[in-house]
Structures are given as C-alpha cells and as structure tokens.
Design a protein that fits this description.
It contains three helices and two strands; from the N terminus they run ββααα. With about 90 residues, it is of the alpha+beta class. Strands 1-2 form a two-stranded antiparallel ribbon. About 5% of the residues are buried.
Length: about 90
C-alpha cells in the first residue's frame, strides 16, 4: 500500500519499468510562477517553486532586492514609488 500522502489523486502517477516488473512513481508537484500584486504579470527574478523549495534557496535568489521585489513588477514598482513621493 502506498504512503498515506500518495493515496489522494493530487499527485500525478507514472508507471515505470524496473527489473522486478512495473512500478508506480509519484510525480512531484510543480511550483507556480509568482505574479505581480497589481497587474498580474509574471514576476521576473522569482523562480517558479513551491514554498518549501524557496526556503531552501539563498535569500538573494528567492526574489529581487529592489523595493517591492517579489511583490510588484518593475513597471508597477515605478508607479508605486512615484505615488509614494507625490503623496
């Protein structure tokens, strides 16, 4: 019987030929691309990884170091800084 976490259908299954016959492999879930909080465009500089994988990365490779990095795209960052200065 498979491990408890593999019993639901959230994991994709793949049959693989092994010397003892056919075995089932459970595919790891893929991370989604992070998106801008304002316009919804994909963020550059943020890897598409799940939260556990992101924690294992170095902080400098998790997100850009500019203001609003990892939250807003560069165009929206520019707008936000202009609005903050004007207000």
């Amino acid at each position: 019987m498979p491990a408890r976490r593999y019993r639901s259908r959230t994991y994709k299954r793949r049959f693989v030929s092994v010397p003892g016959g056919v075995s089932m492999r459970y595919m790891e879930k893929r991370g989604k691309v992070s998106r801008c909080a304002r316009c919804g465009r994909p963020l550059a500089g943020v890897p598409p990884a799940r939260s556990g994988e992101l924690r294992a990365l170095a902080r400098s490779s998790r997100r850009p170091t500019r203001p609003y990095g990892g939250n807003l795209c560069p165009a929206c960052t520019r707008q936000a800084i202009k609005e903050a200065v004007r207000a």
